[in-house]
Design brief:
The structure holds 2 protein chains of 2 kinds.
Chain A: E1 12-19, E2 29-36, H1 43-54, E3 73-76, E4 79-82, E5 96-99, E6 106-108, E7 111-112, H2 115-123, H3 145-152, H4 162-166, H5 168-172, H6 179-189, H7 197-204, H8 218-222, H9 229-249
Parallel strand pairs in A: 1-5
Antiparallel strand pairs in A: 1-2, 3-4, 3-5, 6-7
Helix pairs in contact in A: 6-9
Chain B: H1 3-6, H2 24-51, H3 56-64, H4 66-93, E1 97-98, E2 101-102, H5 105-130
Antiparallel strand pairs in B: 1-2
Helix pairs in contact in B: 2-4, 4-5
The chains are: A alpha+beta, B mainly alpha.
């Protein structure tokens, strides 16, 4: 690929990237890299170019590069984004600032500690607890399209945690269960095949759960899969309130 | 080698005191929350006025008070902003299903707006009829 004598200099774009190398420094710093500008490149492509051709020490997570795995979430110019879905052309020619997801502890460079999130998923039992146990020989659990529609949006969560980086409540209280975990709990609570709502109630209807949410709503705005976790939390608040009044007014009933 | 021995020191970024100025959505959220103060303040004025019914003099004094008028003029846009932001969120709370489809969220919000305006008109008619 010989360069044409009269060709224009190749267009570039600069990325200002958060670096944290704990064995070398106590404090993080920013490092600026100049990468080729391609119309069809996303921030992830730029990061891969940096790691490949400029600085192999840059550390970050990524996988599918098509917006379904939830691995490549980072702050791009202060907004939580999947870097595989953030196009360079939307920022060019301005500088792009890349930082690790907000409100999480940083392990190295752009990699955050997500153990807390994973623990919370276990805490709310984010899996199907069948209402009635059936042996495989009896066939599938049947569900109508209308029953599916009730929780379908919440099942689209890819655990990318962009919503946590948008949530100022989580930013102040890391024990808050958070948008994704509550949306996933609701995904199962609203599933007609599930009978685990009571088991989940203690975790969700708590001060680290739905009642910590002040409905800022930014979580739903940044969600790349239109899960609407804010909606899930408010629906859970309505359910919890109804259950409370029912238990007070009709204590003998279910 | 155990995890504890090889674990490097994590960096925790501090949460700035002016966090709500960093993002437009955060600032709008804080404005919405602060309007509650004006809602509360106006409710207080109304309650005091209501408690003085029968005492014609003090009611007239309150209604003619320039200070209270100015306070209420400041409170009015705050209360309207408060109302509009919360009415717009009602579809997130009131989720109704018709088969596989959700009842249109705009319809849910619209019904609340109509109710708000309807009740306001009734109250205004009552106030002007007896005022």
């Amino acid at each position: 690929m010989a360069a044409n004598e009269n060709s224009q200099p190749e267009a570039t774009i600069s990325l200002e990237v958060f670096r944290y190398c704990p064995e070398q420094e106590d404090e993080p710093r920013f490092q600026t890299y100049e990468v080729p500008y391609r119309e069809d490149w996303v921030v992830l492509d730029a990061l891969n170019y940096i790691k490949d051709k400029i600085d192999g020490s840059l550390t970050y997570r990524w996988s599918c590069r098509m917006g379904v795995c939830g691995s490549c979430g980072m702050m791009v110019n202060g907004e939580p984004k999947l870097t595989c879905a953030a196009f360079l052309r939307d920022y060019h020619p301005a500088l792009i600032r890349v930082e690790p997801l907000s409100y999480f502890p940083v392990i190295r460079d752009l990699v955050i500690n997500m153990e807390g999130f994973l623990d919370k998923l276990t805490e709310v039992k984010a899996w199907l607890v069948p209402k009635e146990e059936k042996p495989v020989s009896e066939g599938e659990y049947l569900q109508t399209p209308a029953e599916l529609a009730k929780y379908k949006d919440f099942s689209m969560c890819i655990n990318c945690m962009l919503c946590y980086s948008a949530c100022p409540v989580f930013g102040h209280h890391e024990e808050f269960l958070g948008p994704a975990v509550i949306a996933l709990a609701q995904r199962y609570n609203l599933d007609s095949r599930d009978g685990g709502a009571d088991e989940r109630a203690e975790a969700i209807f708590s001060h680290e759960g739905i009642w910590e949410c002040t409905f800022v709503g930014d979580c739903s705005r940044v969600c790349p899969k239109n899960v609407d976790p804010a909606g899930a939390i408010q629906q859970a608040k309505v359910t919890a309130t109804k259950d409370f009044y029912r238990s007070v007014l009709v204590p003998w009933g279910k | 080698m155990s995890d504890q021995e090889t674990k490097t020191k994590e960096y925790r970024r501090p949460m700035p005191a002016d966090w709500w100025l960093k993002k437009r959505t955060y600032s709008l959220f804080m404005v919405r929350e602060l309007t509650c103060v004006f809602v509360g303040g106006y409710s207080l004025i109304l309650l005091i006025l209501a408690s003085r019914i029968g005492d014609q003099e003090s009611v007239t004094a309150m209604l003619n008070s320039k200070t209270l008028s100015v306070l209420q003029l400041i409170a009015l846009p705050m209360v309207i902003y408060h109302t509009v932001t919360w009415l717009n969120l009602t579809p997130k709370v009131l989720v109704l299903w018709r088969g596989e489809e959700r009842v249109n969220p705009l319809l849910i919000a619209a019904v609340h707006y109509v109710a708000w305006i309807g009740v306001s008109i009734v109250i205004l008619c009552v106030v002007f009829a007896y005022g």
